[in-house]
Prior knowledge:
heterodimer
Amino acid sequence: EIVLRQSPGTLSLSPGERATLSCRASQSVSNRYLAWYQQKPGQAPRLLIYGASSRATGIPDRFSGSGSGTDFTLTISRLEPEDFAVYYCQQYGSSPTTFGQGTKVEIK
Amino acid sequence: EVQLLESGGGLVQPGGSLRLSCAASGFTFSSYAMRWVRQAPGKGLEWVSGISGSGGNTYYADSVKGRFTISRDNSKNTLYLQMNSLRAEDTAVYYCAKDQFSEWMEYAMDVWGQGTTVTVSS
Lengths: 108, 122
């Protein structure tokens, strides 16, 4: 199965700053089938990005995804107070689908 | 509004059984694959099981294969997870989630329920 490694584990930033989150796969992710989810405490995950770079319905354009093969990035251009959360990547190009361990974006 | 609502979680002893349900509304249930994803306390997300739109194809993580059974009743718009021979390591919040585009498990998960908590402990 494909192992996803996210870095950094924790990102300490201030509102208005740019956040860059990395997701590296142990094998190439087919068809760029890589998604990003946001999860806040006590809530279910929310789909942000699918197909590596397409924003899900209702997701603000400050969220963007990029990458292919084994290296993917989620960028939040200017952090809003509601963006402080844990972010997970998921690959669904190979079975079984797998998730990264998560990156926590916390207020500095 | 598209919604998923899980139920059936609770406290169960090791070796026991539990059946989770996920009631869907706001979309054509049979047109989409569905999955169960769990999250142990303080941990990340783990895919558990998936089922095609018709219910004819089912898939399991190795960690639950032979112990869990996924099923769906498209006439009732409901997804199920029968969990047998439960272990302490099955303790988690269990989420049901909808495939984004397809009746096959091909895409990301665009709608998630609020989760139901399963605790396996004596």
